[in-house]
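Reply to dn_fold:

You asked what the input looked like. This is it:
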Amino acid sequence: MEILRGYHAFAGVPGHEFVGRIVSVNGVSAKEKGKWLGKRVAGEINVSCSAYNYRPVCAFCRRGLKTHCARRTVLGIVNHDGAFAEYLALPLENLHLIPNSITPNSITNEQAVFVEPLAAACEILDQLNVKQFRAAAVLGDGKLAQLIARVLRTALPSVVMYGKHKDKLQQAAAAGIDTQIVRGDAADLKRVKDNFALVVEVTGSPTGLALAQHMTEPRGTLVLKSTFHGAAPVETWPLVVKEITLVGSRCGPFAKATALLRSKKVDPRPLITRTFPLSEAPAAIHFAQQPGVMKVLLKPE
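and this is what came back:
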């Protein structure tokens, strides 16, 4: 929705969360091609200059920070047509195999389509030693917030989700996550008295940052996950006075996300509200903006 509202001024085919099957491979040996044709894959969305075989590669790619490549394209977001289509193209190094075998640890298409956002949730586990915290607060009750709360719950004894939608909070509660209702406006700064050493802001709202700073205790850590179109009114004095550590966080490790799905520690399928055929994409986008809707999927006919 934020991309359609103007985030990154993107023009092209949107869509960056997908599972698909490889039908064509170019520029590799017959043996290598045989490893990939027909296989199910999910894909990392940042295409680095090393993946494009640019020479020399940029300083970020040399440091192994390919998601920050100075010349990267981003699937469905920056100069790269995305997944709301019958076909898309990505370099092989961006692809991760989703096993086809039907076993107790197999991953369905409905689970695999969540690998990319689930990996973004897992990025917090790579950025922080979350075991040092006794509990965490997740501000927001949308799709990414739901995944982050579930990931943190695999590592922490207590995770509390703060949101303004009772039906969405009920979904979190069903996954073993504590919940608290908030209004989602400036009044929360007076009403909410809770403090946490670890707070993750995923409200998707410009006002979410103020509450997140308010709830982060002195010398605590605040992780920012929201991306939205437009500016956010920010007062920086709470960061300074409380000596808060601020961590920006986005894309993450696909291997950890896949492992969580295979182990059944996280099952995102209850977050799927409805699946539309690809030909009805405009109707799906309209439906996705209705109150109470979580994940909407598109499926090629």
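Residues 39 and 179 are 40 Å apart (CA to CA).
Hope that clears it up.
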